[in-house]
């Protein structure tokens, strides 16, 4: 139980930090600890407790914020659950550790480039930018709980 508490505390700190950086120029989210930032925080904390395999990962705050622009807090939570778990959307695979769905899409994209646009694919390889997703050459990963964030070279 102590370990779960520590993990939840770390996630709450990460969520609070992410909420403060999410759509800060949007009228609904520009006030620190304003109504919509509080709702966003609540949705993300509730989701991290609901789906412990995913917990909270960077980028989820933007998805939840867009939902909150159109839905109330509870409906936004359930919409996020559907996006993550429903077979039709199945975003779960992007956010679980190892990001298997992301890697499948990356492989598919690379295969598609090799087949349909071989010159572009060769150029991207020569520029070492074909693997800009997590773990590929030309990318750096930033630590933290959950999935690492990849920084792309400029």
Automatic annotation (TrEMBL):
Pfam families: RabGAP-TBC. This is USP6 N-terminal-like protein. Signal peptide: none annotated. PROSITE patterns: TBC_RABGAP. Residues 1-154 form the Rab-GAP TBC domain. Residues 135-146 have a biased composition (Gly residues). InterPro entries: Rab-GAP-TBC_dom, Rab-GAP_TBC_sf, Rab_GAP_TBC_domain. Transmembrane segments: none annotated. Residues 129-154 are annotated as: Disordered. It comes from the Eukaryota. SUPFAM superfamilies: Ypt/Rab-GAP domain of gyp1p (SSF47923). It comes from Galeopterus variegatus.
